[in-house]
Design a protein that fits this description.
heterodimer, A: mainly alpha, B: mainly alpha, 82% helix, 0% strand, elongated
Chain lengths: 131, 92
């Protein structure tokens, strides 16, 4: 009985350590990528920085929360798991939609970019559709 | 110590939300603003998760799902509006 009690107490202490690691790493990644939102020169490069926040940072934080409530409070929250799944599914889709709309509305690339592989691609495609 | 790390992470999230608001205000094109708004919604999800650990309550878990869904729908609507000029297309 004593051993079980000690084990439970040490589990409670270690879940705090594991949760703190997950959440602090997630928050650190979020801070770094928001730094990228400020400093990068272009919509297209900034989307790269924003995707880091939406996948790795938030998934680390929400997974840490899930672990904390599962072990420390004994609460299996299906809503947190669904939130992780939803963010994982929708983050690439929304990023893709924003960048595609930006390219279609002719937002210019930054002056330091080397080449534009899609140059003239959409005009040709639309002409082919009209024929 | 645990609560201190949680508050530190919350401060980091708040700083990154501030940076995103800066990008929303000065962003030269509408696409920049939409991207920053999407990232801000996701940062709100992270802040709510940390806050529910700090308060030891599971009452805010619905908000995580709700803000995720609303941010996604808003982002898609804005992107379509920029690309085509309309949000919902009608076939004639």
């Amino acid at each position: 009985m004593h051993g079980i009690l000690k084990e439970v107490l040490s589990l409670n202490a270690s879940v705090e350590i594991i949760t703190a690691i997950f959440i602090f790493l997630g928050a650190l990644i979020t801070g770094i990528s928001s730094m990228g939102m400020i400093r990068l020169p272009d919509v297209y490069t900034r989307a790269h920085a924003a995707a880091k926040t939406t996948t790795l940072g938030v998934m680390g934080i929400v997974f840490g929360t899930f672990l904390y409530f599962l072990i420390a409070e004994g609460l299996f929250s299906i809503r947190l798991l669904l939130g992780i799944l939803f963010v994982l599914i929708t983050a690439p889709v929304s990023s893709h939609m924003i960048i595609r709309s930006a390219y279609h509305s002719k937002v210019p690339l930054s002056s330091t970019s080397v080449q534009d592989d899609l140059e003239g691609y959409f005009e040709k495609g639309e002409k082919d559709q009209n024929e | 110590m645990f609560d201190f790390i949680m508050v530190l992470s919350l401060v980091l999230i708040a700083i990154s939300i501030l940076f995103n608001v800066y990008r929303i205000v000065i962003g030269p094109y509408p696409s920049d603003r939409i991207l920053a708004l999407d990232t801000l919604g996701v940062n709100l999800i992270a802040g709510i998760a940390i806050l529910s650990i700090l308060l030891r309550t599971s009452a805010f878990f619905d908000l995580i799902l709700l803000i995720g869904i609303l941010a996604f729908v808003g982002t898609i609507a804005f992107a379509r509006h920029i690309e085509r000029g309309v949000v919902i297309e009608r076939k004639r």
